[in-house]
Amino acid sequence: MDIRQLETFLRIVDTGSFGAAAQTLNATQSTVSARIRELERSLGVELFDRSQHRARLTAKGQDLVAAAREIVRLASNVRHRIGDKDALTGTVRLGVVNLVAITWLPKLMSTLRERYPNLAVVLDMGLTAQLVDKLRTGDLDLALVTGPVVESGLQAISLGFDQFVWMCAPELDVPSRKLTPAELAAWPVLGLSSQSHHYPVIERWFRDAHADYRPVISCNNVRVLADLTVTGLGVSLLPRMSYHAEIAAGRLRVIDTAPQLGPVEFVALHRHTATDPVVEAVASLAMETSEFERGPTSDA
User: Which residues form a coiled coil (predicted)?
Assistant: First the structure.
């Protein structure tokens, strides 16, 4: 029995199949199968019921999971803390929401390559709900998403906050006075798609003021939404800090509204069982390179 066999065993458990585990490990399915056969031979028991389409654990396999996670965690911790930076190897599957991708993700990837040159990263871009689903099923190791996300099986590490405010192009001639949701709704609203983590917050903001939220254009990409806003097609809710350059250049103008929406937190999310130092190292670097505000901010 060796660490690689146990790592392969756990990846099968997390992904649900030998084929999926092979893909995430950048190995062939025959290699994965061989490692499990060797592990079973060394333990003298069968770990998986191979009569099913998915890799189902036997009773002995279930007994091994917790111990295997602890052994792998301890071994990885030794490599990470005692060995040099080249000792941190493997592949981390990282989910990233659009706003992080278009702002400080390149900074994170550059720092990651510098610190851990032998660590491979597989990026997956998506909406928060999609990435959280993949985290639950074991298709991702870590996700940088919009918070809050509160689930018993997931652990969140704060990456900071951004204040979302209504914006428009200056030529749209939206009044400079404080506007209510009902008054803002009189202008063409460019909205995030219904699958967005922000959608229910925006909808509630209008509903609480007895106003209708009826976006003329919906989009699941913040950058596209900002570009459409810059062209003067309507008003949209955008992260203030992420678009400070456009505001300073006069391409976007912040609309004064009452009430204001609260600051939005972003988090690094992983499963409670995923205590691999590789995941911990990437989450730590995400905290270090994040360009979000460290505490809630407000325009008030």
Answer: none
Q: Which two tokens stand for residue 292?
A: 């979000």
Between the CA of residue 271 and those of 49, 77, 78, 171, 279, what are the distances in Å?
25, 17, 21, 47, 10
Record the tokens describing residue 44, joined without a space.
């003298």
Domain ranges (residues) in the chain: 1-83, 85-161+263-295, 164-262
Q: How many angstroms separate the Cα of 264 from the Cα of each of 2, 63, 197, 226?
A: 44, 41, 10, 17
Secondary structure (DSSP) of 108-145: HHHHHHHH-TTEEEEEEE--HHHHHHHHHHTS-SEEEE
Domain 1-83 - what CATH class?
mainly alpha
Characterize the bridge pairing of strands 142-146 and 90-96: parallel
**pLDDT (tens digit per residue) in 54-105:** 778 999 998 998 888 788 777 766 665 655 555 667 788 999 998 899 899 9
CA dihedral 186, 188, 165, 299 (to 10 degrees): -30
Residue-wise pLDDT for 28-52, tens only, equals 889 989 999 999 999 999 999 877 6
Specify burial of residue 80 (Cβ count, 10 A radius: 0-12, 13-18, 19+).
middle
pTM here is 0.69
Is-contact 166 254, C-beta < 8 A?
yes
- Given CATH 3.40.50.720, say whether it is the number of domain 164-262: no
CATH for the 85-161+263-295 domain, from 3.30.420.40, 3.90.1200.10, 3.40.190.10, 3.90.550.10: 3.40.190.10
